[in-house]
Structures are given as C-alpha cells and as structure tokens.
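Why show two proteins at once? Because comparison is the fastest way to build intuition. When a single record is shown, students tend to memorize it. When two are placed side by side, the eye starts asking what differs. So, the first record is below.
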Amino acid sequence: MDGSINDNEKRTNALRRRYQQTTSNDELTKNRKNQYTKAKEGYQAAIKREKIRSWKQYYTTISPKNPWNEIYNLANNKHEVSKL
C-alpha cells in the first residue's frame, strides 16, 4: 500500500466505519469486511516497516562504543534537543 502512515490510518479507519455501519446487506457486509481486513493488514505492515526503518536510522547515528548512552539520556530526559 502506497502513501504515508497517516494516509493508511485514515483509509483503514474509514473502511472500518463503513463496514460497521453496513447491517442490511450480508453480501455487502462481507465485501466491506474483506476490504477493511486487507487495509488493516497493509496498515500494520507499514507500521512495522516504518519502525524497523526508524530504528535502523537511529542505530546508525549513535556512538558504536556505547549505544546505551543515548537511550539512557532519552529515558531520563537528559537529551539535548538540537536547535535549528
């Protein structure tokens, strides 16, 4: 599925609402449920890919001597925010 995480989230939520509101037609309900499940799977896969990409990017920026320094500083709010 192409697009950003936010676009995927909005599309998945819209399909979920459409599926939940369909009560009168069983065939239409089944069709919309299938659309929603496919969109949800794509959205979850996109989140997983983005998390992995983000961690890989973060890992390349930290010091190779002691990678836990950055995590410790972030957890204890001792991280300096770069000023633009």
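Second record. Ask yourself what differs from the first in the token line.
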Amino acid sequence: MTGLPPADAIGHVPRAVPASAVGWSELLLFLGLLVLVLTPVARVAATVGLFAQRRDGLYVAITLFVLLLLGATVAVGVLS
C-alpha cells in the first residue's frame, strides 16, 4: 500500500467537490495573488511618503520612479 488513491479515483475528485467550493477556491487564489502583487506596491508607496516627510527630494523622485515601474508592470499584467 503506497498511501496514494487508486488511479481510477482521481477522475472522480471534481465530482466530490461541490461547485460552490470551486468558486471559493478560485476567489481565495485570486485574493492571495492580489495581496502578493500589491504588497511591494504598498511598501514603495509608503516609502515615498516617508521620504517626502523628510523632505528628501532625490529619494522621493527615485522611489516615485520605482512606483511608476511597479504600476506599469501591474497594468501590463492585468491587461494581457
């Protein structure tokens, strides 16, 4: 005994999972990916605020450029 289900049982797994659970799993997967993508964006945006508070124009400009690149990357990913 290997602990694995028999090969013919694998095809029956989707029938055992209710359709509502499939929708929830897709939603949770989407939300998880959204959090993973938006975490760096939020971090860079917060850094812009901190540098602006310190009135450090050079680092505000650099961080805004990085934020622009992150936003463009997210936009391209969403539109494609």
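One difference worth noting in the second protein: Residues 28 and 34 are 10 Å apart (CA to CA).
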